[in-house]
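Problem 12. The chain below contains 166 residues. Write out its predicted structure in token notation.
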Amino acid sequence: MCSTPAIEEVPVVSPDGRFIAFDRVTQGATFVRQEVLVTDLAGSGEVLIGQGAYASFTPDGKHIMYVNPAGELVYAPTPAGINNGRSIPFIATKRISQKEEMLRSFDEAHRSFEQSFYDPKFHGKDWAALGRKYRELVQAAGTRRIPVLPEPHGRRSQRQPHRRQR
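Solution.
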């Protein structure tokens, strides 16, 4: 991260330890801009990934995920290198749907368990068949959002205790 008048926060180190992704918030008299940037550990330059915040590297380090100003999850390729700060190459982004994100997360977790489970025979279960079965459930699922309605002030104190009728 560099010395700028902006606020730089939420640093995340790539899985291979080569890069740091971070948020930069720049506030002017009439605007606020949030950007996701990547630098190397030496801080020799920066690559602008996109407008947004909350960067995170995928476990393989090949992509950076972040939330754009519209609240959408965006996947962008991790830069191959930093150009010593002389230029900021353009990086295209790939938007994925929430369904794709859920399926990718499921596939990643399923693969991880398959590769690291202590019993190679999975207690006699057909791991591939279980994966197909539960992936179909993820595919059929709606949204992962759970609506939460704020409770008006004082509402709890106004509740009447439940009275049992006789």
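Discussion. The two ends are 69 Å apart (CA to CA). Students who got a different answer should revisit the alignment rule from Section 12.3.
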